[in-house]
Amino acid sequence: MNWNILLQQIVNGISLGGVYALMAVGFGLIFNVLKFSNFSHGGVVTLTAYIGFFLSRYLVANFIITFLLTAVAGGLAAVVIERLVFRPIRRKGYPISMLIVNSITVAMLVQQFFAVTLGADYYTYPNFIKETALHLGNLTVSKIYLLMLGISAAVLGALTYVIQKTKIGIAIRAVSSDISTPSLMGVNVDFVISVAFFFSGVLGGITGYLLGMTFSVDPFIGSMILKGIIASIIGGMGSILGGVIAGLLLGAAESLLIGEIGAALTPMVIYGSIILLLLVRPQGIAGKITEVKA
Amino acid sequence: MRKSVFLLMVVALILGSVSQVFAGGEPEEAGPIKVGMYADLSAGTAQWGTDAEKGARLRIKEYNKAGGIMGRQIELVIYDCKQSPTEAVKAYTRLATQDKVAAVYGSLISNTALAVSPVAAQTKVPVVSRAMDERATTPAFNPDDPENPGPANPYFFLLQPSAFQQAAVIAGYAIDELGMNTFTMLYDKGNAYAEYLAKGFAYYVTKRGKKMLGSFEFQSGDVDYKAQLTKIKELGADGLFIPNYVAQNANAVKQARELGVKARFLGNNSWYKPMDEVAGPAADGSYFPNNMTFDDPSTQWFFETYEAEWGEEPRLHSFSGYDDVGFILEAIERAGSTDPEKVRDAMEATRKFEGIIGTINIDPKTHRPVGLPMAVLRFVGDQIETVEYRYVPKSP
Prior knowledge:
By secondary structure, chain A is an all-alpha fold. Chain A is 73% helix and 3% strand. A two-stranded antiparallel sheet of chain A has the order 1-2. By secondary structure, chain B is an alpha/beta fold. In chain B, the strands form five sheets. Chain B has a five-stranded parallel β-sheet, with helices on both faces. A four-stranded parallel β-sheet of chain B has the order 7-6-8-9, with helices on both faces. In chain B, helix 3 runs parallel beside helix 4 (110-123) and helix 8 (226-235) crosses helix 9 (246-259).
C-alpha cells in the first residue's frame, strides 16, 4: 500500500468519523444522565433528516436557516419523546431495562412510519454545495465532508463549554452523578433532564441534516446510529472527548479496513476488536467506569 | 300441507342435482377464461404492481372487445401478494387450485418468484414473470458457471432479459461501441439483483478477453463508499460498473466524482428516472441499459391508448403488464385450450411474440427470452438521453 492511499483513506475516514462523533456524544449525553442506552436517538436522526429535506425543498433553499431550524426541531423532538415515553416510566420507578425497550420501540416506530409513508420515493436536498473537492497534492478532500467535520467540531466544542461552564451544564453533571440528591437542593430534575434531551436532540438533528444532505434520505438512515453507539462505548460512555476520539478512530479504521480487506470482513474485525478492547479496558478510551444504579 | 311442501323440496333437490350433473359435463367451455395474477398492490413496490395491473386490464379489455378467445370472454383474477414471498405462494396456490386459472402472471420482483417457482413446478399451472434472477427459471443456476444453467422449471417463464443478459448488454456496449478494455465494479453484496448483475458483467468482460481490474463490495445499509472508490481511482480502469438500487447508485456516483475517479460509469436498469434527480450532474457521461425508453417512436401509440383508458401516463410496468398478459393470452389462443398443460406447451414454443417492449422468443432450454434487445441510454449533464432504442450485444 502506498502512502498516498493510506493518507487518503484516513482523510476519508475522519470526515465520516466526525458524524460518528456527533452521534456518539448525543447518545452518550443521555446515557450519562439516565444511565440507559437511548436508541431513540436514531429515530430523531431519521426524523430530522426528513424535516431538513422538507424545509430546504419547500420552505427556503437556504443552508444556514434550514440547518438551524432542523437542529432545533431535533431538540424539540427529543424533549417530546422524553415526556411521552421515558418520563412516565422513570416517575413510576420502573427498572432501567424498560427505558431501553421503549427507546428501541420509538426508533423502530419512526423508521416504520417513514417506510410506510415515504419509503417508496427518493428525497435529495437541494445542492447547497457543489460536489467539488479540494486538492492538496495527491490528497482529495471533499468540501461537503470538510463542512461536516467543521460543524461537528464547532458543535462539540460549544457543548463542552455549556456542560463545563454554564449553570445548566453544572446541573446536568450533578444529575448525572446522582439523580435524586440535586432535587433536595432545589434543582428541578425533570427540567434538567428535559434540557439534556434537548441538547442530545439538537445533536441528533444536526446529524440527521448532515447525513440527509450528504446522502439521500431514506427511512433507514437512522440505523447509522449503531456506529455512534459503538464509538460512544469505545470512548467511554458519556465522555465527550472520548466519544470524539473514538468516532474519528472508528471512521479511519473502517476506511482503511474496507480498502484493504473489503466491506464484508470489516465489521467482523471491528466488532471483534471492540470486544477485545473492552475486555482489556472496560472504561473505554477516556471514561471512568460508570456505576449503573438500579 | 306440510307433506306437500316437503315433497316439493325433495323434487326440487333432485332436479337441482340432475341439472348440476348435466352442467358438469362442460365446465371448461362455459363462462369466461380465467387468467390469474398476483402482484404487489401494497408495500414498497406497490406502484409497480398497480401499473402492471392497469396494463394487464387494458390488454384484456382489448381482447374482450374483439370477441375474446374461442368465443369466450377473459377474466382477470388478481390477488395482492404485498411483496411477500409467503403471500405470493398463497396467492399462486389459490389461483391454481381454487380459481382454476389457465395461467398466472407473477409479481415483478425476484424474491417472490424464487418462492413461487418450486411450487409452480408441482402445481403445474404456468407462471410468467419479470424475475431477473436466473434461479427463478433455471433453479440449479450457478453464477460461476452460467453456460450450464441446468434444466428449466417447466412451469416458469421470464419475459425480460435476465440479470446475466442485461449485464452482457451494457458490457458489450462498453466494449464494442465505447472501446473500453479495463473495468472495475462496485456493488451491494447483500442484494441478489446487484450481485447477479455484477457476476454477469465480470463473466462477460472476461469472456470477451477484456480485464476486470478489481471488484468491490459494500453492505446493504452502507452509504459511504469512499474507501472502495479510493482503491478504484488508484486502479484507473476505463469503466466502473455500478449495478445497485437508485439511492446507492447516486451516492456512489457523487462520491466517485468528488474523489476524482476518472473511469466512465456504467449502470443497470435502476439508472433510469428518478436517478437524474437523485444523482444530478454527477452522472454526466454515464451509460446504462433499460428495458425501453419513453421517447421510442414505435411506442407512442400506447401512451395515447393508455391515457384514454386510465387518465394518466403509463410507467415502465404499465408496458410490462400489457405485454406479459398479451403473451399469456396469445399462448392460450395458440393452444386452443385453457388446460394449463397445453398453455405451458404453447408458451414454451413461443417465437416472435411482438410486445411493445420488444419481440420475445422463448428459449425452451432456459425459459428466458433469446436476443431480446434493450435500450441504451446516457447522461448528458443531469439529463437522460437515448443512444440506442434496441441494442443487442454483438457477441452473445
